[in-house]
Specification:
The structure is a homotetramer of 140-residue chains.
Chain A: E1 2-8, H1 24-39, H2 44-49, E2 56-63, E3 72-82, E4 87-95, E5 98-107, E6 109-110, E7 116-117, H3 121-131, E8 136-138
Parallel strand pairs in A: 1-8
Antiparallel strand pairs in A: 1-3, 2-5, 3-4, 4-5, 6-7
Chain lengths: 140, 140, 140, 140
């Protein structure tokens, strides 16, 4: 199962070297991840209203080609693996169908005290159900 | 009464035109305002723990000279006026003692429902006490 | 003549008070302005390749209602006035057709040395031609 | 050889979950790296004036403890390894002498066309000279 999300890079995301700042990619991954979760019925704002949070435990990005302002990219996210307490995602950032960066994030779920808790039951079941499917979802 | 806060501009705050992005100035004003409040005994994190928030109601900035990355600036804030429910601040951004931008912000205080409330008693008293003083405070 | 641009607010644009940070609105105005210019045949990246820049000279925003993450807004921009050397824009930010913030920006055009120059001929002519029209353009 | 840089986290860098957004750490690493380079006589703005850029090729961050606004952190950077064309750095983010995150970045040097070039001669020599030293440098 993979999910694709379209983003247009912003002028404000560039740096004085003329390209998109490398920290902006982290925001692209997050935006895509949140839309992916939503497509699986897991709305981050509803989750956080219940005082359940899904922080990033680790992340990595490899930058292959520079990105410029006002370019259209598609961020593709796939579930690498997950357990009752951990979720690992892979990402590819595509421009004109060419991969210009890829990355990973790992997540846990925590309560209001930032103590680890199990992945919410419904979300876990949905991940389980979708795991074997080969379909590609898109957000926008 | 005025308060000065030193900031060094960041590489990440530049844009592809080679200068500091105009939205970064808004963050400089906020950082200075929060340090100013702290110098008056009003810690924003303590305030927000009590579910009291101090949102920006309006702001304006006039940009006189471009700013570059890794430049040292001093943001000077003064209280223009305040009432039981509104606080108006003026700012000047100085580089090498030259004013390169100035601005204003207005604030109210709100509760957890974002309903307006009176300025916290202690903070109001401190503003009152400092109002007539001519001294200049600095943060760092 | 007015121009409307759709934006979805991002999780990363929120602050610890739970609402969209006030500096993010500045980026929304810029994104809308750039799309508006593009709709008038003025592509900012082409302009900047010719070493012509369009900095913000001043701006103001008035915040009426708090914005939350993952909300859909429409930013409406209109030309307030313009001369050979200055362009003044008005903005309204709408959520569910309700205005939740409005603002203004003024701009000049400068060369690579950041010295003021006249508004590019073609862009000036287009602004002139569109000025009297009543139509509403949209970007996305 | 290691280098330490002090940073105070900003209110604007928080998210609605009440902690510093994970993308802000990337900016902390960059700010520290730029100060580290400066301490070695390599000023990024001078470098970029000569149309030499030092993009991030890959990065990783592991988040151990949440960070809050207005906290003081020290970012420690060490050179893991370097060749004529690649520089690998390690980072630790410390709060009250406790490591709350660590990370890595790899860099190459490129020309105005973003084509890889060798590390500038002087910078390479300085890295070489400092490599075996055990001292700790600090920026602020």
């Amino acid at each position: 199962m993979s999910f694709q999300h379209r983003i247009q890079t912003r002028y404000a995301e560039t740096g004085q070297d003329g390209i998109i700042h490398h920290s902006s990619y982290i925001v692209y991954l997050e935006e895509t991840r949140i839309e992916f979760f939503k497509s699986l019925g897991c709305h981050i704002n509803l989750l956080e209203q219940e005082k359940i949070f899904c922080p990033v435990v680790d992340l990595s990005v490899r930058y292959l080609k520079p990105l410029h302002s006002l370019e259209e990219i598609f961020v593709e996210v796939t579930v690498e693996k997950f357990s009752r307490v951990r979720l690992c995602l892979n990402y590819r950032i595509l421009r004109n169908q060419l991969c210009i960066a890829h990355g990973t994030t790992s997540h846990c779920f925590v309560n209001a005290m930032f103590k680890p808790i199990a992945i919410p039951q419904d979300f876990f079941a949905t991940l389980k159900a979708f795991q074997s499917q080969e379909k590609i979802l898109t957000s926008n």
